[in-house]
UniProtKB/TrEMBL annotation:
GO terms for cellular component: membrane. InterPro entries: LemA-like_dom_sf, MamQ_LemA. PANTHER family: MEMBRANE PROTEIN (PTHR34478:SF2), PROTEIN LEMA (PTHR34478). This is LemA family protein. It is a single-pass membrane protein. Pfam families: LemA. It is found in: Membrane. The chain crosses the membrane at residues 6-25. Belongs to the LemA family. Keywords: Membrane, Transmembrane, Transmembrane helix.
């Protein structure tokens, strides 16, 4: 009789451990999704600011059509990236970031544009949004690292395999952004 009680107690403890590990994996997976959603919110905010920026720049630099067309094209790529294709979304985001840098570089050639209050406000809003995107990307990578560690650690890796939990990819910095800018005086 004591043998059955011990066996039942062991089974109950194992079931409780399984459910505890499963629930923690679900919590970490949901946290990864939440942090991705935060990136999406910041990208949407930047996405909405771009038409105003383009219109402001057009007024001062109408013959810079190629630069403005790159921004519009990059913005269009953002809309065409599949909702579940995170790597495609990040690739389009990186392209848009590069195009926006070109627009801000234009301001150096047009002093009136550089002094325009609308342009200054938009530039400030976009810089703030870029910082939020960078922070959200960092938080996403931290959350993915925690989730992936949980999936690969013993004994939660057994529950992860049984529950179908899979590793997530971290966001990487594009090679062109890793180049250190050259400063000359």
């Amino acid at each position: 009789m004591i043998g059955w009680i011990i066996a039942i107690a062991v089974v109950v403890i194992l079931v409780l451990i399984y459910f505890g590990l499963y629930n923690s994996l679900v919590k970490y997976r949901n946290r990864v999704e939440e942090t991705w959603a935060q990136i999406d919110v910041q990208l949407k905010r930047r996405f909405d600011l771009i038409p105003n920026l383009i219109e402001t720049v057009k007024g001062y630099a109408s013959h810079e059509k190629e630069t403005l067309a790159k921004v519009v094209e990059a913005r269009s790529m953002m809309t065409q990236a599949p909702a579940d294709g995170r790597s495609e979304q990040m690739e389009a985001d990186n392209m848009l970031t590069g195009a926006l840098k070109s627009v801000f570089a234009l301001a150096e050639s047009y002093p009136d544009l550089k002094a325009n209050t609308s342009f200054i406000e938009l530039q400030h809003e976009l810089a703030t949004t870029e910082n939020k995107v960078a922070y959200s990307r960092q938080l996403y990578n931290t959350t993915v690292m925690t989730y992936n560690t949980k999936i690969e650690s013993v004994p939660s890796n057994i529950v992860a395999k049984m529950g179908g939990f899979t590793k997530r990819d971290m966001l990487a910095t594009p090679e062109e952004e890793k180049v250190v800018p050259k400063v000359q005086f």
